[in-house]
Design a protein that fits this description.
heterodimer, A: 1040 residues, mainly beta, five-stranded mixed beta sheet, 10 helices, 8% helix, B: 153 residues, nine-stranded mixed beta sheet, 2 helices, 44% strand
């Protein structure tokens, strides 16, 4: 056994420099032409990522964003105004200042910026109209500015004048003449004229309405004729607009006079702060130029790498390294590529390399560093010395660098000189060893797309040259396991000392330092090591690190060569940021998201499988004849339902009587109790046709509201509401009785008869449902507090009947499980004892009937220390064995393996000093249910992890926190991902009849945009006392 | 020193651990830090850690019992992670239970990126599902939902 898989040895030689020779060389990636036509974005292009941060006047990047929408219009003088809607970057970027917006190479136009929505308020389209002028005229037009006519005074003498214009307006004369008025007769080209002789003086021409090309000239007739101006050829397909979720957008507007087509030129922007990302070395989110931040963000955003497989420590170390050495990334990712390729292509130019440590992906420095991330230029000491005693004979394999890799060459480094207030220029810096490769060969490395520092480029060039000059070989050995086995890791410096003893030659010694590149370990013990020569000077200092550390650029900045009269209209020092004038996304008439997606139904039969309770492999209801417990149609009736929402429904309290519908026995106040009312909400739709009987905004199929009345709180009979709605959903259709006291529910459902409450000798379990509603997409934290008072001290009572004990289920309407959700026991006395155990559903827990819990040692427990032994006894009703049961006692988890029917296991807690209450303990919560049927399946058959809480004493209260923004992999801005309501189900144990529980629930931590609900009356008054003796049976939990 | 090596395999996700197995203590469930590890005769081909990150994953071969097959299917379907640990210890100091002073000499965490094998055994390929082929960055493309019908300029 124990074959170590590895790459072919030959690759190691080429890895040793880790900055490969470019296979293809071309023009600098960072060089863009400025005076080109505005680019349009095409569907399927990648959303560019602008990643940069200007620091101390250095950095930043010029971008040339594509347009998704455009608008074109021309005025009377036929000047074209062009509007471009631009997508600047993925994510949110810093605001762009006036001085940083260019069209061609000129600071012109007006620019506004937005995020997560469309920028600007203009509708796209081609609004170019025909414009006219008067041509072939022989007279002088005394009317000032006929292109943009306005009321004006004209000095006249006593002679004949003619006034003319096109259009439908009116020109009224006053002052030197009161002839007229001249009234237009129609749109262009209908021309009207007025010939008159004023007195000498000032003639006032007052214009109203549409006046086109007014002419006022001497003589008795109008001269010239109207001609149509050349129509500007502007694009006709101007875009429709979209959601622009999660991206930075911009609206650019500029005008060009007639005949000037510069309106179609490319817009450029200088970005000083790029996409906001979580930063490794800084708190919070913001722009960054640390390539480690970028790579970590990309790794996470690919969605293919679980967080547990990301080596965050390595990323932090790499971030420190690049920061210390001033290696910055200021560039744009606009070309689609593979993540591995991207990292391989870019990391090397930051003297980093992708690494894998223990399966975790990270990046690490190519050179030894100090803990602070600086290059290690002090003497290096090997952490271990391998010699003849530790190296397995015959495993020593050395490979020298091939000749073609060792010939001198000149590294031609391309980088971008980025002035703070101007467009950058591409620079080259030649790096070579003195006296070598004066005429080449050249090896070009293009960093111009993302490096704006000469020193950065020079250090990379130095590294490339130095490694090829000094690193002479690589080595592979196999070693016996020894002390190094537990401590040696990749990147460590080791020494190999081997003595060559030949009978016919003088003895020699192989004594070199190496950097550990790869470690392979097998069960047989031998350790395979791939080592890279680590050249050092006489003092033991890394030669490569020394030269890289010392490398500096010339520091000479070249002129941008910009000359001529400036075409800037805006000031090059104007740091103004124009206000965001974007409209609310709802103001745009956009198609619903459903237009753009097809959501396939998940036909995974997992849930069906879970119905296979007897293990006969018949999974569906009709086939599974032995499934006498879960045969559909299931009955699933919460015994107590606290209905909190949804709060955005205006008719939450339909009759405005101050009693929320959920509490109101007569929602529409028509005098007919809801249970008997054929139209509960009086909306004119009979309940059997009404998809939402109580008009609470929750479709009946998902409505667990049983319409119980206030009498429930006093233990009286319920209104029979569970049967009353008569919906098709399984909740109401079967009509189990309410949770009221001993009397039967009174309401019979339209389609399903209400089952009266029947006190039973053996008390069945109860089900509590707390139902929250809050449409939100960010920042909402729901805090549920359920207090159960007066629970019996079952632990001190000996055996605990158990069918079932406690269960907690969480139902999220959007079907998404929160990353963080927990139930915390917050209150408990020091002497309380809790036993919690759970087992995964996939272990076949539905085959198990847990018969009881016996507490062997029930001695009074001191707060300081205790020792508890408990025994779980249970039977499996099926043929399969229980593979695993986790039992948790006071934060200790015990795994019980392969227990057969009727077996018993016991466990003893260790002595635990200190408090023994369960404050802070997390209980797994089941989630990911998108409809009631799934929830039913989960509750009945146990999807996920069932958690049982038995043996509770004293007062128990727990809190469930759900932070929606922590929903994994969820774009919370997607409407379908916003959750409307949450339900928490607590299955009450029936272990001891007659106890009373007080259940309260409340919201807390509202997001700012929902603050109005915080004091809502809807949130109060939900305290109930329930006598478990009267709780209706929940058939799904009764033993088969 | 009589060197012994025990390997431990854990299948887990962000919220739960589903299986803990070890392959050294025959038919015994051992406890380490309150976690119990049951015996399963699995085999690991070796651990590799590399600076350049180009090494493949790790292969684990397990007996193809119904339980193991089910566990593997669940792991693949649900994107669960596997953690492999190799401990080294001196067997002269005891061979019946994990020693307090045993040393962790190798550790590997990976996704179950593939599985297969003959009828009797099933081999898991542990690694990263980060594909070396295919476009992944930048992660988002312009879609009709995002930009509607783009302009043609």
């Amino acid at each position: 056994m124990s074959i170590v898989a590895s790459d072919p040895f030959d690759t190691l030689v080429y890895q040793q420099s880790l900055v490969a020779t470019p296979l293809e060389e071309g023009a600098a990636a960072g060089a863009d032409n400025l005076d080109v036509a505005q680019r349009a974005i095409k569907i399927g292009e990648v959303v560019p990522i602008v990643f940069c941060k200007q620091e101390n006047g250095a950095g930043g990047v010029l971008i040339s964003p594509g347009a998704t929408e455009a608008r074109f219009e021309n005025d009377g003088a036929n000047a074209v105004s062009a509007y471009y809607h631009l997508v600047l970057s993925e994510g949110e970027i810093d605001s762009v200042e006036v001085r940083d917006v260019f069209q061609r190479s000129c600071r012109v136009g007006s620019f506004t910026q937005s995020y997560n929505r469309r920028a600007g308020a203009w509708p796209p389209g081609n609004f170019i109209a025909d414009r006219f002028t008067v041509a072939e005229t022989t007279g002088e037009n005394l009317f000032v500015d006929s292109e943009f006519p306005a009321t004006q005074d004209i000095d006249v003498t006593a002679q004949v004048y003619t006034l003319s214009f096109y259009g439908t307006g009116t020109i009224t004369l006053s002052g030197a003449s009161t002839a007229g008025p001249l009234v237009g007769t129609g749109d262009v080209p209908a021309r009207v004229t007025l010939t008159f002789t004023p007195t000498a003086g000032t003639l006032t021409l007052t214009l109203t309405g549409s006046i086109v090309q007014p002419w006022f000239e001497t003589g008795s007739f109008a001269t010239g004729s109207l001609v149509t101006r050349p129509r500007p050829e502007c694009p006709y397909y101007c875009g429709s607009g979209g959601s622009y979720r999660g991206m930075s957008t911009g609206s650019f507007i500029n005008s060009a006079p007639e005949g000037d087509t510069r309106w179609n030129r490319q817009v450029h922007m200088f970005i000083r702060g790029g996409m906001h990302v979580p930063r490794l070395l800084q708190s919070g989110v913001g722009p960054s130029n640390n390539v480690a931040d970028l790579m970590l963000w990309l790794l996470r955003k690919t969605g293919r790498t679980p967080e547990a497989l990301i080596d965050l420590d390595a990323f932090e170390t790499a971030a420190q390294f690049t920061k210390q050495n001033d290696f910055r990334f200021d560039g744009v990712l606009s070309q689609s590529s593979n993540l591995e390729d991207f990292i391989a292509a870019h990391a090397r130019y930051f003297l980093l390399s992708k690494s894998k440590r223990g399966g975790k992906v990270g990046i690490r420095s190519l050179l030894p560093t100090t803990p602070a991330g600086e290059l290690l230029t002090s003497p290096v000491r090997p952490v271990y010395v391998f010699n003849e005693d530790s190296i397995i004979p015959g495993s020593f394999q050395i490979t020298y660098m091939p000749l073609n890799e060792r010939k001198p060459f000149c590294a031609l480094m391309l980088w971008r000189q980025q002035p703070e207030d101007d467009i950058g220029l591409i620079r080259t810096t030649e790096v070579r060893y003195e006296g070598t490769a004066l005429e080449g060969p050249y090896e070009q490395h293009d960093l111009s797309g993302f490096v704006a520092s000469e020193n950065h480029a020079v250090k990379v060039g130095t590294y490339i040259l130095a490694t090829r000059r000094y690193r002479t070989h690589t080595l592979r050995i196999k070693a016996l396991p020894a002390a190094f086995n537990a401590t040696l890791s990749q990147g460590d410096i080791v020494q190999v000392v081997m003595r060559r003893q030949a009978s016919s030659a003088a003895p020699g010694e192989h004594r070199y330092l190496y950097e550990v590149d790869r470690i392979g370990k097998t069960r047989t013990g031998e350790v395979s090591l791939d080592l890279i020569h680590f050249p050092v000077d006489r003092q033991g200092r890394s030669l490569v690190a020394l030269e890289v550390e010392a490398a500096r650029g010339s520091g000479v900045l070249l002129s941008t060569t910009k000359s001529g009269i400036s075409c800037d209209v805006n000031d090059s020092t104007d740091t103004t940021v124009l206000p965001d004038d974007s409209l609310d996304p709802g103001d745009w008439d956009l198609p619903d998201d459903s237009v753009f997606e097809v959501v396939l139904e998940d036909n995974d039969f997992d849930n069906d499988f879970n119905f296979d309770t007897d293990g006969d492999d018949f999974t569906d209801g009709g086939d599974d004849l032995n499934d006498f417990v879960f045969d559909p149609p299931p009955t699933f009736d919460p015994d107590l339902d606290l209905d909190f929402g949804p709060l955005d429904q205006p008719d939450f309290d339909l009759d405005d009587d101050g009693i929320p519908n959920s509490d109101d026995p007569d929602d529409d106040n028509d005098g007919i109790p809801d249970g008997l009312d054929p139209d509960d909400d009086n909306d004119g739709i009979p309940d059997d046709l009404d998809p939402d009987d109580d008009n609470d905004g929750i479709p009946d199929g998902g409505d667990f509201n049983i319409d119980f009345g206030s009498e429930l709180a006093t233990g009286g009979g319920s209104d029979g509401g569970t049967g009353g709605d008569g919906d098709s959903g399984f909740v109401d259709g079967d009509g189990a009785g309410g949770v009221g006291g001993g009397s039967a529910g009174t309401g019979a459902g339209e389609s399903g008869g209400g089952t009266p409450n029947q006190p039973e000798e053996e008390q069945p379990p109860g089900l509590l449902s707390v139902f929250f509603g809050e449409p939100s997409y960010s920042g909402l934290s729901v805090n549920v507090q359920v207090s159960l008072l007066g629970m019996p001290e079952v632990l001190t009572s000996g055996d605990v009947a158990f069918d079932p004990p406690w269960q907690i289920f969480l139902f999220m309407s959007n079907g998404l499980a929160p990353v963080f959700s927990s139930a915390n026991f917050q209150v408990g006395s020091e002497n309380d004892i809790y036993i919690i155990w759970s087992f995964p559903a996939e272990d076949g827990d539905q085959l198990v009937t847990i018969e009881g819990v016996s507490v062997v040692n029930t001695n009074v427990i001191t707060p300081a220390e205790f020792d508890l032994t408990a025994t779980l006894e249970y039977n499996a009703t099926g043929a399969e064995l229980i593979e695993k049961v986790n039992a948790r006692v006071l934060r200790k988890i015990y795994t019980l393996q392969s227990v057969g029917p009727s077996d018993s296991v016991s466990f003893t807690t260790p002595s635990v000093p200190g408090a023994n209450k369960l404050n802070g303990i997390n209980i797994p919560i089941n989630g990911r249910f998108t409809d009631d049927a799934e929830l039913y399946t989960a509750v009945n058959s146990g999807t996920g992890v069932r958690t049982y809480v038995a043996a509770i004493t004293g007062v128990v209260e727990w809190t469930i926190n759900v932070q929606e923004e922590e929903f994994e992999g969820t774009d919370v801005f997607e409407p379908e991902n916003r959750w409307k309501y949450m339900k928490v189900f607590l299955v009450l144990g029936n272990s001891v009849p007659g106890f009373a529980a007080t259940v309260t629930a409340a919201y807390s931590s509202f997001p700012a945009n929902n603050a109005e609900y915080e004091s809502s009356a809807h949130l109060s008054g939900f305290a109930f006392t329930v006598d478990t003796a009267s709780i209706e049976a929940f058939p799904g939990f009764l033993p088969g | 020193m009589a060197r012994g090596q025990a390997q431990y395999l854990r299948i887990f996700d962000e919220t739960s651990t589903y299986h803990r197995w070890q392959n050294y203590y025959l038919n015994t469930t051992v406890t380490i830090d309150a976690a119990q590890w049951s015996f399963l005769a699995f085999d690991v081909d070796g651990f590799t850690s590399g600076q350049t990150g180009d090494e493949g994953g790790i292969s684990v071969t397990l007996p193809a019992t119904a339980f193991v097959v089910s566990a593997v299917e669940d792991a693949i379907r649900n994107g669960r992670l596997c953690e492999l640990q190799m401990f080294e210890f001196n067997t002269l100091d005891g061979n019946n239970a994990p020693q307090v002073g045993q040393q962790l000499i190798a550790n590997f965490v990976g996704e179950v990126v593939g599985a297969g094998g003959p009828f009797e055994t099933i081999s898991l390929e542990l690694g990263s599902s980060l594909s070396p082929v295919g476009a992944q960055v930048p992660p988002r493309k312009f879609t009709s939902r995002l930009i509607g019908v783009p302009a043609k300029l």
